[in-house]
Amino acid sequence: MTFQERIPIILDLLNEEGKVSVPQLCKRFSVSEVTIRKDLAEMEKRNMLLRTFGGAVLAAQGSVRLEADIKDAQARASIGHVAASYVGPGDFIFLGPGLTCVEIARNLKGIKRLTIVTMNVSAAMELVDIPETKVILVTGDFTRRSGTYYVTGTRVLESVGGLSFDKVLVTVDGITLSGGFTVLDDITAQIFHPLFNRATAVYICAASSKFGKNSLSALNVPSSTTTVVTDSQLPDAFQTQMNEVGIKLICA
Predict the structure, then answer these.
(1) How are strands ordered across the β-sheet holding 174-176?
(2) Average of per-residue pLDDT values in the chain
(3) For 148-174, how does the pLDDT look when each residue is reduced to its tens digit (9 = 90+)?
(4) Residues contacting residue 150 through CB under 8 Å, at least 6 positions apart
(5) Which helix (H) or strand (E) holds 52?
(6) Helices (H), 85-172
């Protein structure tokens, strides 16, 4: 069993019991204490838990993580793993901002000869010093949202202007039956639109919790080249809508 496969089980145990111990997890997964401590350290880095002496506890606002936060963390981990599997050796890709795209970056580390253009500073840090991977961080205004760092603004538009990508992987802030795909601000929409139009394939990676929510700026998504990657909790109504508009849907 891999680390990615252990994540949802550890989170489920934390949700049920409030805490876990290293010996408990060693027995559950039949792995060494070194492996479990590495798992817990990485999960703490991703804000999934807080490590304690000999184990870990739920983490949210200092002590208790809400169940919705746990489900979103599980969804992001699954989506990141699946979305990255569609990236191949030698691809030229664009990676957008957000926690889900950080998860994608973590799953790109074994793919050779990648060139990754990104506005996601947190994702770029995950990929630094990876052999045979070139990371290009675009120019923009440095900012922070939802636990990640990224750059934005008109200078991002200038940095990616004219570039065509094999794959564009981004997340969104809302998806509704009536309004389609939306993001938090106009500048993000302005950055995404030309990228969508010049990409061989577009992957919109968003947890099912984003469905049914509206944000400020609508996206024009080309249905013929777009795939939506979400988690298994997506309601049937949205699955039907994706089929009707010709957008491929993958539920991780």
Answers:
(1) 174-176, 180-183, 217-218
(2) 90
(3) 899 999 999 999 988 999 999 999 999
(4) 97, 98, 119, 120, 121, 122, 140, 142, 143, 144
(5) strand 49-52
(6) 99-106, 121-127, 154-160
* Torsion sign over Cα 182, 188, 190, 193: negative
Q: Which helix (H) or strand (E) holds 134?
A: strand 133-137
- Work out the average pLDDT over 142-150: 85
Q: Is the pTM of this model over 0.70?
A: yes
- What is the token pair recorded at 234? 């997506």
pLDDT in tens, 206-237: 999 999 999 889 999 999 999 999 999 998 88
- For the record, the structure tokens of 147 come out as 């636990």
Residue 250: C-alpha distances to residues 47, 78, 166, 190, 225 (Å)? 26, 11, 19, 26, 14
